[in-house]
Every structure is written in C-alpha cells, then in structure tokens.
Amino acid sequence: MSKFYVTTPIYYVNDVPHVGHAYTTLAADVIARYYRLQLGKNNVFFLTGTDEHGQKVAQAAEENKQTPKEYADSVAPRFKEAWKSLKIYYDYFIRTTEKRHEAVASQLLQKIRDNGYIVEGVYKGWYCVGCEKFLTKTELVNGRCPLHINKEPVYQEERNYFLKLKELSKVILEKIKSGEYEIHPISKKNEILSRLELGVEDISISREGVSWGIPVPWDKNQTIYVWVEALMNYYSATQFLDGKKRFWPADLHIVGKDILWFHSVIWQALLIAADLPLPKHIFAHGFFTIDGQKMSKSLGNVISPKELIVRYGVDGTRYLLLSAVKFGSDGDIEYSKFDEKYNADLANGLGNLIARTAKMAESVNLPGRELKDISLNIGVAIQLVKSDVKEFTRALDLIWKKISKADKFINENKVWALERNLKISALEKLTDDILQIAADLKPFLPETAEKIERQFKGPEIKSENPLFPRL
Ligand SMILES: [Zn+2]
C-alpha cells in the first residue's frame, strides 16, 4: 500500500461537537497517525468537515435570525476548535458550502444522469426533518420517527429525481458478498446484506421545496438531496485539492452505526452509477450512553469534548475514550468509572513508572538513550490498529501489559537498592522499555509519547512534573 485515505462523516452544523463526534474523529486520528508513521506524512490523507445544507440547517438559522450561511459559518469553527483541542490532526476540513465542493457534486450528479441512472418521478411519503430523510412505513413507530419522537413527520408529495437504486442494489449485493468492499463489524455487514436481500426501492435524490442546497444542474427548481451531496464530499475533496486525486478511492470510511446504510449502500450506488472506484472499507462504530442513558439535548446529559479535557487532560481523554469499549460495540460513560480508570492506568500506571524511573536515572546521571532498532519504533501493539477490526482496546491492553511488566521488574529487582553498576544497567534496560512504550503510544497519546521521548532521549534523563496528576 502506498497511500492511505481515511474519513470521518462530515458533521451536521445544527449540532455542536459532543463526545460522539469526538469518538469518531479520534478513531480516525489514531489510524491516520499510525499510517503516517508507516507510510510517511505525504502518503496519508485524513478528511473531516461539516455538512451545511438542507432544511434542518435553514430552520436552525431562521430560529437564530441568521442566514443559513452565517449560521454555518458560526458553527463550523466550533468543530475545528474541538479537534484542535483534542490534538486531532486532519489534513483537510471540508465544508459542503465551499463553491468547489458544489461544483464537483454537480458534475458528479450530471454524470450519473448521463449514464442513465436518474429518472423523474413523484415522491409521496413521511419526511422527518430531524433526520433529513423520508421514512418508510417500517421505520415509523406509532406514526413517528423513533429518533425524533417530539417532531411530527411531515407528509410530502413532490416531483423529484430518483436514483435507480433497485437496479444498482443488485450490483452492490454482489460486491459486498465478493468482498470487493468490506463492512465491519461483521454483524453490521450482515444487517446490510439482509436488508439488500429483502429488496430496495429507487430513492429520491432531489428536493423541490428545499432552497438551501446545491441546485440540480439540469433543473434549477430542485436542489440535490443533502445526504447525496454530503456523501460526495469524500470524493470532491480529492478532486479540488491539489495533488490529492491519487487518494481516491478512500481506504476507510469511519461512520456511526446509524448512518451505515447511507455509506455502504447509497454512496456505493452513486459511485457505481458514476463509473468511479469504490471505497475499500467501511467501519461502523457504536454509541456511548451516559450513565446508562441515551445522550440527548432534552435530557441535558450531552458531554462536550471540552468537559472531558478539563477533567482528564487531552491525552487522558483520548485514552479513556479509546479504551472504553471495543471499537464497533456500544459503550457507556460514567464519570466515577472514568475517574477510577484514569487514576489506575494513567496516574498510577504509566505516570508512576515514568516518574520513578526518571528519578532513579537522575540519581546516577544516566544519559538519555535511543532505541537501537529503528524498525521497533512502530511496535507490535499498534499494528493492531491496521487490522480490519481496528483493535484499539487490545493494542492499549498490550501496551499497558508492558507498563506493568516494567513496574514488576523494578519491584522484583529492587532497582532503587542495587549497587551503582547493576543499577545503571537495570535503568538502561528500563529506559529502552520506556522508549518502546512511548513509540507504541504515539498514535494514541501523541503528547505523552513526545514528553516521554524528550525526557528519556537525553542528553541526560531528568525527573519532571507528573504526566498525569492524580484526580
Ligand atoms: Zn428523525
């Protein structure tokens, strides 16, 4: 592999960044950092951004007495700030109101039509503004959208353009079965397969009544359905940015499980219809509940990344989120458990190992060291990030086993009490172990890894402030 392209969903600007967005983006950051170590910085492209069109944004803007563009301009920077504060280094932040995105999306839709995959029709059905989508009978629960029980779905009947999804879905089914593109976890892949096997209808890909959107190129009375145009961001960024064309197709789309259908079926259908190569892998992760309850604005239990950073620091937050649950499963955030884990693994575990080793090294004026074998710099543990199932938790487990092992070595050999020469050789071994741990930590806790390296690479090892103050 000579390049790697990873994406997060682009986040809808009617919401401000919360821990769910942070989790997805953090996962992409770890993977991007891993591949930068493997392939070099210039061969990795990490894209995130904001989804800024559609009825929901227009409505939120109106409530704020702003134009939709002004509104989007005020929310998009909040995502950028959140990612900066978590030390998430994306390569590009796309906004779907960028003219150059609009141009590529338009061209793509025109190509799909020229290829004969778009037909005109009339759409009748229930529309949920909260989801910005039509709901089928099977999706409605007591006549309401299950995700937006407080909002009445709107009955809409309008002339639309439709994508021939019924025809395309047969091709998609074959491609998933043959493994031409992968969906993980497998349980989610199976859900998609069984839904495809039940058969799907053509879908409406334009809107007559929504003016806040990209005009359909051949019919200025319609705009492109916001979901369709938003999906196109993954492709458009590679086309309008200099030198990025070679990154298409994407190697990995990371998405929340609620939007997997759009990414594994609708998006692929659009690409097949446009004669473009398909992304290679789609990973759907689970959701966090807060103290066992669904996170929601109405419950007032939405956690912002900032709240976590204030409590646990940047790397503390990164560690707690990434180690909370196997990637792909649902998890729960409970402050008391996070506090416990922070103290046990970070303050006592990693922090204490670094502090006591540095102190002993300082007492014998031990010079800093370099890892001898450069290939070891990318450790075995983080290779797990490369696996299809993105084993963040297992990788972190392995790193923490090394931390325990080093601690045990100090205790069993009573390193602090050894005579000078033996003490020096024991500390040299410990320093090498610690530098390996730092190398392993790089994609996960970049700031901590850097601090450890600075401290132990020399010229002389010195004790410093604790990495993770106890709570
Ligand atoms: Zn809804």
Automatic annotation (TrEMBL):
Leading EC class: ligase
Signal sequence, renumbered to the chain: none
InterPro entries in the record: Met-tRNA_synth, Met-tRNA_synth_2, Methionyl/Leucyl_tRNA_Synth, MetRS_core, Rossmann-like_a/b/a_fold, tRNAsynth_Ia_anticodon-bd
MF terms in GO: ATP binding; methionine-tRNA ligase activity
Domain Methionyl/Leucyl tRNA synthetase: 4-147, 150-357
Record key words, sorted: Aminoacyl-tRNA synthetase, ATP-binding, Ligase, Nucleotide-binding, Protein biosynthesis
Gene Ontology biological process terms, A to Z: methionyl-tRNA aminoacylation
Enzyme Commission number(s) from the entry: 6.1.1.10
Family according to the record: Belongs to the class-I aminoacyl-tRNA synthetase family.
Task performed by this protein: Is required not only for elongation of protein synthesis but also for the initiation of all mRNA translation through initiator tRNA(fMet) aminoacylation.
Name this protein carries in UniProt: Methionine--tRNA ligase
Species assigned in the record: Candidatus Woesebacteria bacterium RIFCSPHIGHO2_02_FULL_39_13
